[in-house]
Amino acid sequence: MDAQILKVAREKRGVTQEDLAELAGCSDRQVRRWESGDSEITYNRLRSLCIYTLGLEWLELLREVEGDNSKANSASA
């Protein structure tokens, strides 16, 4: 789910992986690894990126991702 949250947050702001990497002070490869789930992102780092770097409301973002997951689960059932 952490990977989905980061990707939804980034896309919601229209930010590329490269742009997010620059803002976060890491490589775009690291952002790709977080989003694909190949590398774990800590909760604090994820929350910080979403709130402070991308300027999104944390609970609203979580609800949106949960809603997307519910729709996907309903469609596959």
TrEMBL record:
Chain segments annotated as coiled-coil in the UniProt record: none
Ranges where the HTH cro/C1-type domain occurs: 6-61
Superkingdom of this protein's organism: Bacteria
InterPro entries: Cro/C1-type_HTH (IPR001387), Lambda_DNA-bd_dom_sf (IPR010982)
UniProt-listed CDD domains: HTH_XRE
GO molecular function: DNA binding
Name this protein carries in UniProt: Helix-turn-helix transcriptional regulator
Species of the source: Ferrimonas aestuarii
